[in-house]
Amino acid sequence: MSESNPLDHVLGFIRTVESGGGATEISPYLAHDFTLTEWPHALSKTGSTRTLQETLTGADHSKNIVANQSFEVVRTTCEGNRVVLEMNWSATLLLDLPHWDAGETIRARSTAVFELRDGLIVSQDTYDCYYTLPEQTAAGS
User: Fold this and answer.
1) Residues 6+ apart with CB under 8 A from 59
2) With a threshold of 0.90, does the pTM exceed it?
3) Residue 80, by phi and psi: left (phi above 0), alpha (psi -120 to 50) or beta?
């Protein structure tokens, strides 16, 4: 990838995920030793840590789970090779999940912390707060 700085690189990655990018599309953004850590949330009580290969496989499978992903970036912070994004995320579910039925819109407020090395993302930590009740929306939205 030829993005000019860490923030542009991360935003390019997010837009690629948003557009439904699978392994082929997202892999140019990620380092060979990339790790994705999802901290505990409504859909994963214990959280998880994934390798690059697990992340790429998940990206390919995600098109069977959600459609119409949208990341509204609310705030960015960039310090050196660390980028932090605060986002409102939503997607249409293609299957039933706890708290939601297929066809419903799932929403979350998310903070993601990215570390980059040599212009590639080496780690992503995500903190997702899912809105599990229909009347819940992002504060201030």
Assistant:
1) 17, 21, 22, 23, 25, 26
2) no
3) left
**2-6, 111-115, 117-121, 135-139: segment of lowest average pLDDT:** 135-139
106 three-class SS: strand
30-38 and 48-51 as β-strands: parallel, antiparallel, unpaired?
A: antiparallel
Number of C-beta neighbours around residue 87 at 10 A? 22
Residue spans per domain, the chain: 6-130
Q: What is the pLDDT of residue 135?
A: 63
CATH number, domain 6-130: 3.10.450.50
Which residue type is seen at 62? S
Q: Any idea what DSSP says for residue 29?
A: G
